[in-house]
Amino acid sequence: MPYLAKILVYPIKSLDGVEVPQAEVLSSGALKGDREFAIFDVQGKFVNGKRHPKIHLLRACYTSLFGESQFSISTKILSLKIPNYNLPQVFNLDIEKQTLATALSDFFGFSLTIEQNSLMGFPDDTDSPGPTVISTETLTEVASWFPGMSVDEMRRRLRANIEIAGVPPFWEDQLFSEPNKLVSFRVGNVLFYGVNPCQRCIVPTRHPDSATAYPDFQKIFIQKRQATLPEWVKSSHFNHFYRLSVNTRLPRSESGKILQIGEEIKIIADIN
User: Fold this and answer.
1) For residue 200, what is the DSSP state?
2) Phi, psi values for residue 84, rounded to 5°
C-alpha cells in the first residue's frame, strides 16, 4: 500500500531542509513553511544553488520551527554554520532578517536581502507550487547509478517534499499524464493534482555539503533514466530524460488540511 513516509520542508530556499511529522497546506497549495524565505541579490535574483555553488557550504538547522501541538510554524529560529566561524550563528527570522542578510553578505562577498512570502513561499514553479513527490525506492534506485552515493545523499541532492514508501521504483510516474491533463490523487484526505515530471537543474550534480561536482552526473542520469523508464509512462513530457519527481498543484479547497506521516496514498483519475 502506498503511504506517506517522509515530509521535508526547506524553510530558506536553497538551504538545508527539515523533516517534520505533519505539514499544513496553504491556500496556494504549498506547504506552510516551505521555501518561505529566500535570499536575493541587489538585482532581485535568487541567491541559490543554481547560480551560487558556494551556498552548499552553509549548514542550517531550525530550533522549535514547528509547533508540536498545532503542526504549524511557531517560532523561526535558525542556527547557521558559516565557514570560518567557530560556532553556529543563531537568528530569529521574525525579527533578525537584516542581521542574517548582513552575515550572508559577508560570506558571499556582495550585498543581499532576505525576503519572506508566507502565502506561497518561493517555489521554482509558481504555476505548480504544491509539494514535489518522489518515492523512497526511486531514490534508492537512482543512488545506485552513482557508486559511493547513499540514499540520503541523493535525497538531499533532489530536495523533494514528499516521499512515498510501499511502492516500487518510479511508481510516482503514474502521478502525471499527458500535457494539459492532471492526475488527481489523495494523501490521506488531501487532494492533489499531479502535473508533470520535474525538470532537474544543476544542483543535483553537486555534493550537498561540499558543492563538488560528480563526474558526468547529468550524462549518467539521462542514460539510466531513459533505460529504466517504465513502459507504461506517458512519455510526451520527456523532451529529455533529466526529469525526476512530480510537480503538483492543490485546489483551494485543501487549504488548512494537514498531511501526516503514515497516511495512505490513492490515485483517483486523470482530469482535463
Assistant:
1) P
2) 75, 0
Q: Which three cell numbers stand for residue 40?
A: 536575493
Domain that holds residue 31: 8-116
Q: Could you tell me the CATH number of the domain that includes residue 239?
A: 2.40.33
CB distance 34 to 189 below 8 Å: no
Q: Are strands 190-199 and 182-187 parallel, antiparallel or unpaired?
A: antiparallel
- Overall pTM > 0.90: yes
Distance of CA 192 to the CA centre of its chain: 16
**Can you tell me whether residue 205 is helix, strand or coil?**
helix
pLDDT tens digits, residue range 32-70?
A: 999 999 999 999 999 999 999 999 999 998 865 444 433
Mean pLDDT of 75-83: 87
CA atoms of 48 and 39, how far apart (whole Å): 7
Indicate the pairing of strand 162-165 with strand 133-135.
parallel
* Structural domains of the chain, count: 2
Question: Contact, 129 vs 120, CB < 8 A?
Answer: yes
Confidence of residue 74 (pLDDT cuts 50, 70, 90): low
Grid coordinates belonging to 61 = 538547522
Inside any domain, residue 205: yes
- The dihedrals phi and psi of 242, each to the nearest 5 degrees, come to -90, 60
